[in-house]
């Protein structure tokens, strides 16, 4: 009887085996999918942070001296020597080019001789001509005094009829001749004295000779071309034996000291720039070594082909390794905000439109929330309204973000960088 009951129970179990298997499978499925159905899918989120934020504009460009000095000659001549090489750093007054100067030296010597000759002539006027003119005036005055006294005496004698009219007329003519000689001597004296025509002519001749000598010595100095300032020769186009003329650039000198960086900025960032903004720069050859710069010039024109604007930055203390035309990267600080609320740019939808928004996690559900943005830089956005520090938002790059409806349940998982 007992065995029969056991066999009956086994037959019943076999008949319900399929149903039991299905129930077990449903139980396993419910255990696996229950959290998703009850609490929603796992979703990567990023958390709003609060910290000091600096907005920068990044650009690349090259090093350039504030000005370059073109070196040439001022007289035509043959190059005797070029004692410097391209790329060489030179001090101020270093000899760069020497010209053959034999003819120029001869001209300078001739001009010096002309100066000495003019000086001798002026000394003759002052030491010989003027004293001689004074003596001539005294002699002419004496002759005139004698002639004048003779006329007075002859006039008395003629009145007393001791002499005739002819004798009186002769004495009067002699007086007139003496007077003319006196006036001539006086004029010669005035001319020989300082300020007179002879003295002025001698002084003018001396001044002209000295000016000609100065010009000759200047031309002689032009035979030696020196560096006007310290710097580096970045170009040289002259060799000994070349015949050179004024107006041709033979060398280019890049002065040492303050350098400047010339970079191209996307024109969409033009509204963010103004002179005086600080920047950090680095040469591509030395990316680990950053140095300070300052925006000093914004080109008023736009490059239409590239859609960019040229700006220049001064480098007050140039690193020793910084060289002409080096490629540099520059971060220009255009704004700074303390304790800003920040989100990764990828967490903000329609960030470039007038109505940006985010999918914010609130009480286990996602909700579309409008936000107001402020500064942006290097993949981060400042949120002025709509998000608080610690809020979690679903980035646009989340795996299943497209299936999430507004109000859907989710299980947030902090994403890398969130």
Structural summary, described in words:
Belongs to the membrane fusion protein (MFP) (TC 8.A.1) family. Residues 340-394 form the Multidrug resistance protein MdtA-like C-terminal permuted SH3 domain. Residues 101-128 form a coiled coil. By secondary structure, the chain is an alpha+beta fold. It folds into three domains: 45-64 and 258-414, Elongation Factor Tu (Ef-tu), domain 3 (Beta Barrel); 69-99 and 223-254, OB fold (Dihydrolipoamide Acetyltransferase, E2P), CATH 2.40.50.100; 103-221, Four Helix Bundle (Hemerythrin (Met), subunit A) (Up-down Bundle). It contains five helices and 21 strands. It has helices at residues 2-15, 17-39, 102-159, 165-192, 197-221, and strands spanning 42-47, 49-64, 69-71, 77-81, 89-90, 95-99, 224-226, 231-236, 243-244, 251-255, 259-266, 278-283, 290-298, 308-315, 327-344, 357-362, 365-370, 372-377, 380-385, 392-394, 411-414. The chain has a six-stranded antiparallel barrel. Helix 3 (102-159) runs antiparallel to helix 4 and helix 3 packs antiparallel against helix 5 (197-221). The radius of gyration is 53 Å and the shape is rod-shaped. The model is unreliable at 24-36 (pLDDT under 50).
Quick rundown:
The protein has 418 residues and is α+β, with helices and mostly antiparallel strands.
């Amino acid at each position: 009887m007992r065995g029969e009951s056991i066999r009956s129970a086994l037959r019943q179990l076999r008949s319900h085996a399929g149903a039991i298997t299905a129930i077990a499978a449903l139980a396993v499925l419910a255990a696996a999918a229950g959290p998703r159905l009850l609490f929603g899918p796992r979703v990567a989120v990023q958390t709003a942070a609060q910290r000091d934020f600096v907005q920068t504009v990044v650009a690349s460009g090259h090093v350039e001296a504030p000005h370059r000095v073109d070196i040439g000659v001022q007289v035509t001549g043959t190059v005797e020597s070029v004692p410097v090489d391209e790329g060489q750093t030179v001090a101020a007054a270093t000899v760069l080019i020497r010209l053959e100067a034999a003819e120029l030296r001869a001209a300078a010597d001739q001009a010096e001789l002309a100066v000495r000759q003019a000086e001798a002539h002026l000394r003759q006027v002052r030491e010989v001509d003027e004293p001689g003119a004074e003596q001539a005036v005294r002699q002419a005055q004496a002759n005139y005094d004698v002639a004048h006294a003779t006329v007075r005496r002859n006039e008395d004698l003629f009145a007393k009829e001791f002499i005739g009219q002819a004798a009186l007329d002769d004495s009067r003519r002699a007086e007139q001749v003496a007077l003319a000689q006196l006036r001539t001597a006086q004029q010669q004296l005035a001319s020989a004295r300082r300020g007179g025509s002879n003295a002025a002519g001698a002084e003018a001749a001396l001044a002209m000779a000295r000016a000609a000598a100065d010009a000759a010595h200047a031309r002689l100095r032009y035979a030696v071309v020196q560096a006007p300032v310290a710097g580096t020769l970045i170009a040289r186009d002259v060799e000994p034996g070349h015949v050179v003329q004024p107006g041709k650039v033979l060398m280019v000198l890049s002065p040492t000291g303050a350098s400047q960086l010339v970079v191209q900025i996307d024109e969409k960032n033009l509204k963010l720039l103004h002179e005086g903004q600080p920047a950090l720069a680095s040469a591509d050859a030395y990316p680990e070594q950053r140095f300070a710069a300052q925006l000093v010039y914004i080109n008023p024109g736009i490059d239409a082909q590239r859609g960019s604007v040229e700006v220049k930055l001064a480098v007050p203390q140039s690193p020793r390794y910084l060289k002409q035309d080096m490629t540099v990267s520059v971060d220009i600080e255009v704004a700074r905000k303390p304790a800003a609320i920040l989100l990764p740019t990828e967490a903000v939808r329609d960030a470039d439109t007038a109505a940006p928004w985010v999918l914010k996690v609130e009480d286990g559900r996602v909700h579309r929330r409008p936000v107001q943005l402020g500064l942006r830089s290097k993949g981060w956005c400042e949120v002025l309204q709509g998000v608080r520090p610690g809020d979690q938002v679903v980035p646009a790059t989340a795996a299943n973000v497209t299936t999430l409806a507004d109000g859907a349940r989710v299980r947030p998982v902090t994403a890398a960088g969130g």
